[in-house]
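Hi, here's the filled form for the chain we discussed.

Project: internal
Contact: R.S.
Residues: 204
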Amino acid sequence: MSERGKLITLEGVDGAGKSTHLVHVVEQLRAHGHEVMVTREPGGTPLAERLREMLIRDPMDPLAETLLLFAARADHVARVMRPALEAGKWVVCDRFTDATAAYQGAGKGVAAELIERLAEAAHPGLAPDRTLVFDCGFEIARERLAASGKPLDRFEREDRAFFERVRGAYLARARAEPARIRVIDASGDLAAIRKMIDASLPRG
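And the returned structure, exactly as it came back:
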């Protein structure tokens, strides 16, 4: 029977460069001999991708938003993530439940206790083995989003106050769970960021 794989999640405020560094994370893990599967949230299954389109496009009540996120997550975990982990693969996921706690919880006021209960229902017994939180200030994040040239989704268009609540929540979670969460200073140059990433990844 295969040894269970590890779940590595990438988190952070919009514009911190999280998705940019995902390729490097995957390359490093594969270089250490791991079979790696890459996925994202919301998304990862046909149902979850359809829900993602709604979540990114359509304004909605924060509670409805949270429930849809966990519906997508439950399908993703059951159909994709757990089978891959049980087969011994390492799963790298662009966002997971920490994002819901930061964005819908701290950002929009959904109760932390409700998010915790929904997490236990959607992915009982499953938590990331390592989480990298890419962190930078508001101005840097906005400059990077503007430079991307892509239309901003409704989360990326949120104001500074929302950004600071989300960022603060990520940093608070990192302080509360230092064994799992590593904060990556994403404001520096590429070489420095990659050095921090390499030092923060588990190897086996």
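Let me know if anything looks off before we file it.
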